[in-house]
């Protein structure tokens, strides 16, 4: 238990409200102005859903949305698989030669700014294209690889923390009763 005295100050509430206002007021204004019927963002001309209709009729924009959703679904699937494997390796195999380096490489995208990660991957793809001719062009595949790179780190950290909390004796009891290691993993981990 924490035995420190709790100080209730009216300034705490004011600071909290100012912080939330600072964070959420721009988003609220963006949503409100998205219903503006004027072509100019700064001039309010009344409520309208005209721009949402224009957005839905724009084939290039809808194609871009479809491509983004495809990349997101594929990247999330691949990151879930790779992150789970990485988490199992980090937790179940314990200390092995290179385990610190492996853990660092898995979690590095979490501590690096996204711009640095993106620029590094772009430079990697350009260098690979010059050295071995792959990838021939930067497109959906390279975007997918970049997304998988930084999504895998989040999955690995979350799943490894959950794996550390689980009681190994339950897994051992299930295997003693005849369950295969894969069956134990799937039935105990995802409940």
From TrEMBL:
Q: Does the keyword Transmembrane apply?
A: yes
What are the BP-aspect GO terms? Answer: transmembrane transport
What are the subcellular locations of this protein? Answer: Cell inner membrane
> Which key words tag this protein in UniProt?
Cell inner membrane, Cell membrane, Membrane, Transmembrane, Transmembrane helix, Transport
Q: Any stretches that span the bilayer, and where are they?
A: 12-35, 60-90, 102-129, 141-159
Fetch the Gene3D superfamilies from UniProt.
MetI-like
Which GO cellular component term is one of those annotated? plasma membrane
Query: What protein am I looking at?
Result: Putrescine ABC transporter membrane protein
CDD domains in the record: TM_PBP2
Q: What range(s) does the ABC transmembrane type-1 domain occupy?
A: 65-191
Family the UniProt entry places it in = Belongs to the binding-protein-dependent transport system permease family. CysTW subfamily.
Task: Name the InterPro entries on file.
Answer: Bact_Polyamine_Transport, MetI-like, MetI-like_sf
**Taxonomic classification:** Bacteria, Pseudomonadati, Pseudomonadota, Gammaproteobacteria, Enterobacterales
Source species of the chain: Escherichia coli
